[in-house]
Specification:
The protein is mainly α. It is 70% helix and 4% strand. The chain has a two-stranded antiparallel sheet with strand order 1-2. A two-stranded antiparallel sheet has the order 3-4. The relative contact order is 0.07.
Length: 416
């Protein structure tokens, strides 16, 4: 009897514990919220149910007056715990009805400002499916719709991952397509956006066309990415690299040793012609590279009205402007080299390390000292080379800006 009275104290402890923890009970590890609460309630019930089953085996103990009060207390606590489980089960069953609406949502949602697209998958679906698995493990009833959804869970996860991967590729591709590419790739971008609009308006998570739709988006993105990478490779290795060669080219090579005016002029003129021819070849390669890019893109967007002459001209104009800037940098660097060699640097003046350029003869003809060649001739030699650099480079439009029969003449070397 004394043990039974101690059991009454245990019932009081369980009751107090229930009142303290019923809103936020300790949930077993890796259990979802609803199932974790149900397991907690069952554990609390088990704490009082097992001892009571042992006491019921002693009939003499159960018929005493003191035991009746303890039994009533036990029945009250057990009823509360079972009702707690029933309420949780019913509320979960009612809440999963919203999942059916989530499954009818479009598979893609897009930002109106920049058309960034994301997978429109309700994260609560995964939680409900996880709850349903544990419900079955606990022997509870799962709605038929959720049971069917559980059978498609792996398929949904695969479809979601594929769609997220495709949309991630799309966002990365959008960042890579700068203003210089937007015109010539307008047709490809429009096709992809039209595919994504279908996912935004037509395709649902329950649609039988879901797999084929995701495959079509991924396949076209892969195709577009391959075309863009080829075009970018041509752009970087055949256009930007040649532009770098042009901008770093020096039209003159100032001698470090003393030389005569005639030798200086002859060598620099020959060098200028060679360097200008080099720049001419680089510009020709740039022009051919642009035509290769356009031919490749034109082939991929056959019968597409979005790929127009205007987008082609825009690419040529953009690259033409960069080529003009590269040639301008080349000329400026060449003039700076000429000026620095003639005047010397501040360090050369301070350290007294000025190296002469021209060989002159000094002759004393009383009452004056005569320099041969004179300073005016030296200055004219430098001016002649400077003018040679300016007059050797004359930029003419590329063939796309001219008539078909107009010969190409990007850089012209002026002959004296």
């Amino acid at each position: 009897m004394e043990i039974f009275i101690n059991f009454s104290q245990d019932l009081d402890i369980v009751s107090e514990k229930y009142e303290l923890q019923k809103y936020e009970p300790p949930i077993p590890r890796n259990f979802p919220p609803v199932n974790g609460r149900i397991v907690w309630a069952r554990q609390m019930l088990k704490l009082i149910e097992i001892p009571m089953q042992k006491f019921q085996e002693n009939n003499a103990l159960m018929i005493t007056k003191e035991s009746k009060a303890i039994i009533r207390k036990y029945n009250k606590i057990a009823k509360v715990l079972m009702e707690y489980e029933i309420v949780l089960e019913r509320s979960w069953t009612q809440s999963v009805e919203n999942i059916y609406l989530s499954m009818q949502a479009p598979v893609i949602v897009c930002s109106e400002s920049n058309f960034d697209c994301f997978a429109n998958f309700d994260s609560s679906i995964s939680l409900v499916l996880r709850e349903a698995k544990f419900m079955k493990m606990l022997g509870l009833k799962v709605p038929r719709g959720i049971h069917e959804l559980m059978q498609r869970e792996s398929h949904l996860k695969i479809s979601l991952e594929k769609l997220q991967f495709a949309l991630c590729d799309y966002r990365s591709l959008k960042k890579m397509i700068t203003s210089i590419w937007s015109g010539i790739f307008h047709g490809h971008i429009t096709r992809i956006e039209n595919l994504l609009i279908r996912g935004k308006t037509e395709i649902r998570w329950t649609d039988l066309r879901l797999d084929s739709y995701i495959s079509s988006v991924q396949d076209y993105l892969n195709y577009f990415m391959a075309v863009f990478r080829k075009a970018k490779d041509i752009y970087e290795n055949r256009i930007m690299r040649n532009l770098k060669f042009i901008s770093t080219t020096q039209l003159v090579d100032m001698p470090k040793e003393i030389t005569s005016i005639t030798t200086f002029i002859t060598k620099q003129q020959v060098l200028i012609r060679e360097r200008v021819n080099f720049i001419d070849q680089r510009c020709l390669e740039i022009e051919v590279a642009i035509f290769d890019i356009l031919d490749m893109i034109r082939y991929t967007v056959q019968n597409d009205e979005a790929f127009t002459k205007k987008s082609e001209l825009q690419l040529f104009e953009d690259v033409w402007e960069m080529a003009y800037h590269a040639i301008l940098v080349c000329v400026k660097r060449s003039f700076h080299s000429l000026k620095t060699r003639i005047r010397g640097t501040l360090k050369d003046h301070v350290l007294g390390e000025m190296n002469p350029i021209f060989m002159v003869n000094l002759e004393l003809i009383p009452p004056r000292l005569q320099i041969t060649p004179d300073l005016w001739s030296l200055q004219q030699a430098v001016n002649r080379i400077a003018m040679q650099m300016l007059n050797s480079i004359k930029i003419s439009p590329w063939r796309i800006f001219l008539d078909k029969d107009t010969p190409r003449s990007v850089l012209v070397v002026l002959k004296e």
